[in-house]
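Let us work through a complete example step by step.
Step 1: write down the sequence.
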Amino acid sequence: MSDRVGLSKQDAENLKRYRHNKERQLIESKQYLQYIEALRKSGQIPTTLIAFEIIKTLHNGMALGYSNSKVLSVLPNEIGNETIAVPVAALRALITAWDDFKYSFPADMNISFALRSDGNGRNPLTKLEKLKNDRYYTRCMIEMRTLAKLDGKKLTVARAAEEVAAENSVSVQTVKTAYSKHRNDILKVLSEYGVEVT
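Step 2: predict the structure and record it as tokens.
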């Protein structure tokens, strides 16, 4: 026997069972990801878009109490099955920025992901690259001076800075400034690994 909307009693029971299924979010996530994977395969959306949606699905599934393997089971087979562990805080930061980008008008990735300069200097990506380089120059200088000491030679800060600058095609002042700023931090890290350098 059917009711007014054309559902049989069995259909109505099945719908109720589906609505109260404790894994409903996983089922719906799987359907959504399969749909957008088909869009990706046909070239209608970029891989990066589905990647962000997968990250969001994984995070949200874990937040709802599903096991990692259970959440991974909803991913389309085309994605593959290789995984890595990532801190939740890192995923949450990406998801928050992604949601901000998706639901902002006008959508601006530089604003949502905080990639634009605050007006007082370099943008965050440039700052990060400079920090990475500065710490590298500092480690090189510390290593050079330490190895020279082990060989019974004295290598001055000025001479080490010249060598590091020449090897990396940067100014001597850039290397000296980096060394002055990061030396103590690098020495502290080395000390934590039992390497005492003075």
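Step 3: interpret the result. The CA atoms of residues 186 and 192 lie 10 Å apart.
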